[in-house]
């Protein structure tokens, strides 16, 4: 489901979700109206229990999926700060490296911060990730040459910092692009939401008593919550985006290249 919606803007997801919920409600209502007779006492009790179970299941799935999406969003925010800290540490430890490796490392780190900021822009993401990986090779080459030229404990600290920067790239990539909410969970959530709307429409069709306002409010609330869950899972686009301020602060601390 998340892959199906990957290229859709949020407004299209919201509108299509509302349309799907409204269609299910209308189909259920028409089926209820087409029934031969209203349910008797036992049948009404059974229908009420079924509706209650479906609504409870939907609430449980919504809470579970919303919590999952929120936790992943928080993890992505924390990883931005951790990566910014790793880059800042590597920058400070370039003071421990002799020339010319010091200058090479600083130029690579400056360019690396720009690439990581570009990676948060949807249209630049793939090119920025590729550029980041190229700069990692340059940073590691500077660390390797520095260790070969001056194999001291202080240079080893810089090598360790560069290694942490490279590791953080992989962790952020895994969380941002390769670890979405499983499509099975989102698909199940949508299926249950559609079934709930159809069941509610069916029950109202049997009794002939339907409030369009109540139905509209319910489907709008469901559609908004489902859209927000999907928005949580798209950290660099939409209304809920991961702040890159920590990375901008690191860039500012590096100053302009002389």
Kindly summarize this structure in a few lines.
78% of the residues lie in helices and 0% in strands. It has helices spanning 10-34, 41-93, 101-118, 125-149, 153-177, 183-207, 212-232, 245-254.
Description of the structure:
This protein has eight helices and no strands. By secondary structure, it is an all-alpha fold. The chain has one domain (10-253).
What's the number of domains? 1
Oligomeric state, counting identical vs distinct chains = single chain
- How many β-strand runs? 0
Instruction: Summarize model confidence as the mean pLDDT.
Output: 84
Q: What percent of residues are in strands? A: under 5%
Q: What does the largest sheet look like? A: none
Number of alpha- plus pi-helical segments: 8
Low-confidence stretches: none
Q: Could you tell me how far the N terminus lies from the C terminus, measured between alpha carbons in angstroms?
A: 49 Å
What is the N-to-C order of secondary-structure elements (H for helix, E for strand)?
A: HHHHHHHH
Radius of gyration, CA atoms, in whole angstroms: 27 Å
- Estimate the global geometry from the Cα principal axes: rod-shaped
Broad structural category = mainly alpha
- Percent helix, as a range, is over 70%
